[in-house]
């Protein structure tokens, strides 16, 4: 078992940092999705409030029975909305990060910040480890252009581990003025991930399939 990178390939530390980063990013996007669902729920609550006013106004002057019926209908709709919101957000968080953090008292925005800080810490550790140990030799099947592309993607991905959470924290601290920068940083990050995954698939799945086709 090799801790450092070398001619044998990537070491255990590099692999562990890589997959910890993948897990943290997946969890962060899951929490972000749950927060978006909360925003959708807020808009639904606004619409429900308007509908409640309509029901109450319609029941006025029609007697106590009509008012009680309107109140029962309002309560039923509120319970149904709360149940849908809890189920949707809970399913996302449980599927991606588990329910323990939320159950222990962290709200979704707080968990989002904690995960962001964790990603920054992982980014710093990865940068320090990257300077401490060289990369293994390039795979022979990579062309010169693909090597340059992968080298550029690595720089963008490592930089994004710092920039995306930093712009998110600015968004929390300074308000929505920083939203365009945060969204742009996320799009650059996602594009770099897509390029990296595309290269990996090209030289694993597709390359294996071509080799299998030649054999057949």
How many domains, in number, for the residues?
A: 2
* Helical content class: over 70%
Please give the number of β-strands: 0
Mean pLDDT: 78
Poorly predicted runs of 5 or more residues: none
Largest sheet: none
Order of helices and strands: HHHHHH
How many distinct helices?
Answer: 6
Alpha-carbon distance between the two ends: 36 Å
Structural class: mainly alpha
- Gross morphology is elongated
**Alpha-carbon Rg, integer:** 25 Å
**In percent terms, what proportion of residues is strand?**
under 5%
Task: Kindly describe this structure.
By secondary structure, this protein is mainly α. It has helices spanning 12-59, 64-96, 100-103, 108-132, 144-174, 179-215. The protein has two domains: 1-137, no CATH class; 139-216. Helix content is 82%, strand content 0%. Helix 5 (144-174) packs antiparallel against helix 6. The mean pLDDT is 78.
Descriptors:
216 residues
Per-chain topology:
Layout: H1 12-59, H2 64-96, H3 100-103, H4 108-132, H5 144-174, H6 179-215
Helix pairs in contact: 1-2, 1-4, 4-5, 5-6
Short description:
α1 runs antiparallel to α2 and α4 (108-132) packs antiparallel against α5 (144-174). The protein has helices at residues 12-59, 64-96, 100-103, 108-132, 144-174, 179-215. It is built from 6 helices and no strands.
